[in-house]
Amino acid sequence: QINSFLPFLPICQRTAKSEMALLLRWAVRGGTPLPLETGAGVRALVRGWPRWLARCHSRCTAKRPLRVLFFGSDSFSVAALSRLWAGKTTPTPPTASCDIHDVQVVATAEREPKGKRRRGQAPSAIRQYADEHGLAVHDYPHDLRHTDHGRATDWIKDVEARHNGGAVFDVGVVVSFGHMLPAAVLERFPLGGYNVHPSLLPRHRGAAPIQHTLLAGDQTTGVCVLQLSVDKFDVGKVLASAEVPVAPDADFVGLRDELGGIGAGLLLDSLLHLPERAAAARRQEGPGSWAGKIKPQAGWIDFSTMDCDHIWRVYRAVAWQVGLYVGTNAGAAADPNARVRLVDVRPASAEVGARVKAAAQEWGPPTPDAALQGKAFYDKPTESVAVCCKDGRWLQCLALQQPTKKVVTAKAFANGHGLTRKGASVQFYALT
Predict the structure, then answer these.
(1) Distances in Å between the alpha carbon of 209 and those of 14, 94, 261, 269, 297?
(2) CA angle at residue 339 from 337 to 340, to 5 degrees?
(3) Fewest C-beta in 10 Å: which of 61, 140, 248, 382?
(4) pLDDT over 90 at 297, yes or no
(5) Which residues are bridge partners to 409 per DSSP?
(6) Burial label, 108 (beta-carbon count in 10 A; 0-12, 13-18, 19+)
(7) pTM of the model
(8) Nearest 5°: phi and psi at 12?
(9) Which residues partner with 238 through β-bridges?
(10) Cα torsion for 425, 427, 428, 431, to the nearest 10°?
(11) Please, which residues bridge with residue 384 across strands?
(12) 8 A C-beta contact, residue 397 and residue 379
């Protein structure tokens, strides 16, 4: 039993440490009487050493309860929050140094509805999850800047006073929140603030790491748990990380959900072992890259400058967010800036590409690949609209949408624009 206690001896409190030191000296000397100057107190300690052993062990192995303030917004942050909430309601591993005592949520305050686009707008995913599970939700002012020290101090103190009995939160956790926390807020967390970031830092720092991973064609990515820094995004020390391969056909939603689950597990493990993980945190090494916010222009397709693989990466990365758009000469006005949204696309097989190209050449003089770029033909066997890309490969469009109209199949689009006639085509242009 004494040997089992030795690992805990260095972190005992002062009185227990001195008492156990006397006991160990007695044990090492083979149980011989201690010097008389130690007095009767020592003999009483020796007789009662099992009781002292149990008391010191309990002091050394008690887990620190953590009050967590969680900042989030979307479904990626919901994965982390749900894991923390499950960690609060399930037994803590014996090796853990901490346990989750309380979790409260911060979500950006809902703006007043103005105009058609905001009427009936659903609350954020993180707010919905918190409401469904009875978690306290605090509104974060959407116009609070990270440089507004006084206002930030008032806000965090108000949260602590009204919802936490005046006690400070031990840890702040930020996952896909969309705001940089002011220093006045970070300083209120005695154990610091931490972030889950879906990339292998320092690559793809910024607001859209998953999209930029797919746009760059990376074959591997990952997720990191790191310390929050003041005035800079994604530069803190890394507590934990995991590498994840990127499938050739991975899209944003699938990769987000996969990284969200892995990151949630890393976050919970890091908090349960926070003293050890924080002490072993490593600095980021190597050149970094910036993954800025995705703008609408990221979904504008130019078949004369983009090859098929490039367009396929853009579709998998940002089509869910900003859509894929081209200009077309179709329609009575033949307006080059009339938009067509490519709703469902995929690279055509070599067989499909050869068949469409042969059909296009059959009804006219031989046409070089450069002249076919951006031309869309209907392929009846696959019921798709095939478009020639810069590299001569073809992109299949299975569903399309014109402005103010509903999404239609490629067959319906082809019927509406006469593409079912032999040799008929539509020219797709880049938007300007």
Answers:
(1) 49, 35, 16, 23, 17
(2) 140
(3) 248
(4) yes
(5) 399
(6) buried
(7) 0.83
(8) -70, 160
(9) 226, 282
(10) -160
(11) 379
(12) no
DSSP string, 5-57: HGGGGGGS-HHHHHHHHHHHHHHHTTTPPPPGGGHHHHHHHHHTHHHHHHHHH
Over 80: is that where the pLDDT of 63 sits? yes
Report which of residues 234 and 367 the model is more confident about.
Answer: 234
Residue type, 332: A
Q: Partners of 426 in the beta sheet?
A: 376
Q: Identify which has the larger pLDDT, 78 or 49.
A: 78
Residue 92 three-state SS = coil
Please report which helix (H) or strand (E) contains residue 341, including its range: strand 338-347
CA dist., res. 99 & res. 97, Å (int): 7
The pLDDT value given to residue 375: 93
For residues 405 and 403, give the distance between their C-alpha atoms in angstroms, rounded to a whole number: 5
Residues 357, 377: Cα–Cα separation, whole Å: 9
Residue 333, classed as helix, strand or coil, is coil
Per-residue b or e along 361-392, where b marks 16 or more CB atoms closer than 10 Å to that residue's CB: eeeeeeeeeeebbbbbbbbeebebbbbbbbee
Adjacency order of strands within the sheet including 98-108: 137-140, 98-108, 64-72, 171-175, 193-197, 220-227, 238-245
Q: Which tokens belong to 119?
A: 């009427």
* SS percent in the chain: helix, strand, coil, step 5: 40, 20, 40
Residue with tokens 């064609």: 217
pLDDT in tens, 121-148: 678 999 999 999 999 999 999 889 888 9
Assign 208 to helix, strand or coil. coil
Confidence (pLDDT) at 248: 94
What is the C-alpha radius of gyration for the chain, rounded to an integer number of angstroms? Answer: 31
Q: Which helix (H) or strand (E) holds 265?
A: helix 252-272
